[in-house]
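Standup notes
- HV: blocked on the assembly model, inputs below
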Amino acid sequence: MPWYLYLALKQLFPTGRRFPFFTAISTLSVALGVMLLIVVLGVMGGFGHQIRRMIVDTEGEIQIKARGLVGDYRAVVQRVERVPGVAGATPYAAGILMVQYQNKPAFPQMRGLDLPSVDRVVPLGKFVTAGSLDALDDDSVILSEGLAESLGIPVGGTLEIYTPLMLARKDVEVILPHSVRVVGVLRIGHQQLDSSTVYCTLRLAQDLYGLVRDVHGLNVRVQPGADEDAVVARINALLPPEVRAFSWRDSFADFLWVLQLEKNMMTFVLLFVVLVAAFLTMSLLLVLVLKKTREIGLLGALGASRRQIALCFCLQGVGIGVVGTAAGLGLGFTVLHFRNDLVRALTHLTGGQELLARFYQFSELPAHLASRDVVFIVVAALLLSTLAGIIPAVMAARLKPVEALRSE
Amino acid sequence: MSDPVLSARGLAKAFRSGDRRIEVLRGVDLALAEGETVSIRGESGCGKSTLLNLLAGLDAPDAGTLAWGGSPDTGARRRATYLGIVFQSFYLIPELDALQNVLLAARILRGPGAAELARARELLDRVGLAARAAHLPAQLSGGERQRVALARALMNAPRLILADEPTGNLDEQTGGAIIDLLLGLSAETRTTLVLVTHNAAHAAKCARQLVLQAGRLG
């Protein structure tokens, strides 16, 4: 080990002494900055990841829509499923309903599912918390958990359904509702979907909306590892111009752009915390250079070159950066691991857990840290810490040994 | 006769104090033979330390020349290979124990191997501090610290030791012991010694005694 690295480490972590105050303060400041970046980027990334999961789990990676309705959807499904990279395709019909249970009304979203093909695209079965997806037929529905709770309807209860089509009819005096049984309840984990959605068979949805044999669109699942954009391009090459395929990123481009912007802004702002930590490290290293002026003179007298003396102090900045970053990563990942406990404790104290779920759409605080984000944080922290060591290093290297030895 | 270990010719050095120019050295001539012990005495502020800094290459003379007995090295590296310097204030690195302080001189010159470690231990043993090798400077007395500094100065087997009032911070008895040790080690290793001191008794122990007066050695 070169002497300047050895001495830098010894000055940061001396043998037989407590963790020096200088090292502790500067390391802690870098660690806190890194921890903040990890936690914030992790949670911001978690929102994006959770939204992707929610979209993909409920609608597949690719959606196919037409300007009006998609006719002869079976032929479209067959053609799309032959496209390389496609794992499955399923048609859907969607719209708004008015439902009523014991004079309690609600206006949920309707989702009509093609039961033979839905499993290949949307794993709804795994979200069912009561009843069963297998029990779903043309006379029954599955409700989202929030809707079932707000209506107070149990599995087995009968729900009355009205559609805009019924309300628009002028040839009847009394509008009779369509009665269906509730055969299940499901919970996806997204507040908006869980609060107000009715899942029914495609045929029921077509009947309710008068679609005959048409559908509103298709959801497509791509094979694991397949390039979504390439699959979209291949599908579009097959489809007529009025029917187009969009990846989930295209469909939610504006929302994802805002999310990315928020993440970038948070990163930019929080980088200043690491920058302040770097300034603190620099000022402490400057004090160290002043304190060790005579030792710097001695090193010169013993034959150390200016470059080596500079490296000795610069490496202390690097050392603080390395230890601080490692500690910050550890702290950050620990906070992310216990994030939901921390949120629960915080909201328990402030009493706003329901509000949090309603506002942020998620019942649990999501976290997802992309490896490129971690690499960015580590590189930024190490770079800033190294830069923090450069000015004190240059100052130490410029000291003349004879003057340094003479200093009081 | 072999080449002198160090020869200085016409060394001059002046400092500015406001508008005044103070000429500290006015043409110092000095030649040091191998194994020779030389003491330099003089009043406070007469330029003894300035002369030593010039001889060590830590400072540049305004005029005059210095020749280091055919050393191929220059600058900082020459100080590491050719010189051992002992200071009044010891200047040990507080974060390093006695052994590592001695070894630091070798670390700066080259990566310390088993031979360097053995030599550092041997030198500590020679200065009577084998049992204190793992002690930090703060755990050593003034005399012990100066012995560590002596061992460090000898670590790279220099041809010349420059000692700048090495007993200045020590009591009379400890100081005397340090000077005896320094002279003994110098004689043992045939290392040339330049001892700058105020103490006439210490100076008298050297083979050649010089006095710096009015900027010249006599």
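- HV (later): unblocked. The radius of gyration of chain B is 17 Å. The mean pLDDT of chain B is 86.
- Next: hand off to the docking folks.
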